[in-house]
Amino acid sequence: MQEQFAPGTTFPDFVLPDHTKTKRRLSDLQGDQLMVLFLTRGFFCPKDRQHVLELVRFHPQMVVGYTQAVTITTDDWHTTNNYRQQTAAPWPFLYDEDRVVQKQLDINEYTDTQHDVMIPHTVVLGRDLRVHKVYNGYYYWGRPSMSELHSDLRDLARQTYEDWDITKPALRKKWDEGDMSHFYPYGDDSVSMHELMLEMAGAIDQYAGKAKHTG
Asked: Where is the Alkyl hydroperoxide reductase subunit C/ Thiol specific antioxidant domain (predicted)?
């Protein structure tokens, strides 16, 4: 992956069709939450399928941890749906038959002359698609374990949420005074509790025109 996508940079806001053939913008899928993005070889790869199965078991923790998951594959629409359904993955799968992501990020797996796929990467993203960490999964052991993702997301959440440690006297004072501006989501005008529950429920339709966090 090119150096401009190093930690601290902004990941490209790609627009691609999802498994329902609806075009989705990454920033809309993210909303005001954290995100883990999986760039995959595709359904044919046993390493990718095994990693997805691990992620399916981990995904409920991402939901309650206010973290979105998105997969991008170079498969066609039909194969993308098979991939998602046969692994029981509940998050959006985007398909990129034109290899837009592969080309822009310069991650062509040139050792595979048959499938023209991307080198698998896992990208941990903070708000506004800010890159926190990138894993190169060309070899299976290069992919993050679920404990590593847990650790990454803990660090990122600690940096993101002002109310990470609500035992701080200053935070308690603000709450008692009715100042909720430092507490998520109570003081966040960009997301209502209703919208947050929809995000946690994985309601696909809520992604259209989703307001981004502006704080």
From this structure: 8-132
